Amino acid sequence: MVTTAARRRFAVFLGSILLVSTESHTFAAAAGLDNGTRCTDRAQCRSGFCTDTTCCSTDGCPEVERCDVFGFQGDCNQQLAAGEPCEKHSDCIAPLLCQPVGPGGAVICFPAPTPTPFDFFPTWTPTVTVGPLCVGDCSRDRAVAIDELVTMVDIALGTTSFASCEAGDANGDRRITVDEIVTAAGNALTGCPG
C-alpha cells in the first residue's frame, strides 16, 4: 500500500535533468557533471558539452586548443609550452611530451629524446702499430704463435672474422692470402723483424 506522503512527492531522473514533483509544484533541477570532469557523452555534463572527453563550457574548441589541458580543464585553452607542468602528452604542444625531468622528477612539457643512430656499416680504421709490422702477430706481443697461424688459416678459409687477426694482412687489402700465411710461419720460426 502506498502512503499519503509517498503519493505527494516523487522524483524522476531524466538524462541530465532531475524532475521533482510535490502536490503543489513541479520543478526541474539540472543534474550532471561539472565542467572539467571526464565524460564520454554530452548527456553526462551539466553544460551539455563533452569536448576532448571533458565536460566543457563550449561545444568544441578551436583547432589549436583543447578542453582537457592541465590546469584549464573545462574551458578551451591552448596546449602548454616547454617547461610548463602537465599531466599527459596531449597537454603539450607537439612535438613536446609530458615527462619527468631532472633530479626531482618534475613532470613538464619537454622535447622528446632524440634516438641515437646506430651505424650498421662502421668505417674501417687501420690499426697503427709502433715499430715494423710482424705479419701473423695477432696479439701484438712481437711473437707469432701456432694458434695465431691457425687463426690466419681460418680467416683465409672464411670461417673466422678478419678482425681477429688484422696483423696477418701484410699488404693492407683486408684479406689473408697464402703468401701472408707463409710469411707469418717464417716469423714464427725466426722471430719478428726489427
- Class by alpha and beta content: alpha+beta
The secondary-structure element order is HEEEEEEEEEHH
Parts with pLDDT < 50 across at least 5 consecutive residues: 1-20
Query: Strand portion, in percent?
Result: 15-25%
User: Mean of the pLDDT scores?
Assistant: 81
- Please state the CA-atom Rg, rounded to the nearest Å: 39 Å
Tally the structural domains.
3
Task: Count every helix, treating DSSP H or I runs of 4 or more residues as helices.
Answer: 3
End-to-end C-alpha gap: 119 Å
Structure summary, number of beta strands = 9
What global shape is seen?
rod-shaped
User: How would a crystallographer describe the biggest sheet?
Assistant: 3 strands, antiparallel
Percent helix, as a range, is: 10-25%
Order of neighbouring strands in the sheet with most strands: 1-2-3
Give your account of this protein's structure.
This protein has 194 residues and is α+β, with helices and mostly antiparallel strands. It folds into three domains: 57 residues, no CATH class; 34 residues, no CATH class; 45 residues, no CATH class. It is 15% helix and 18% strand. It contains three helices and nine strands. The strands form four sheets. Strands 1-2-3 form a three-stranded antiparallel beta sheet. Strands 4-5 form a two-stranded antiparallel sheet. It is rod-shaped and about 100 Å long. The N terminus is likely disordered.
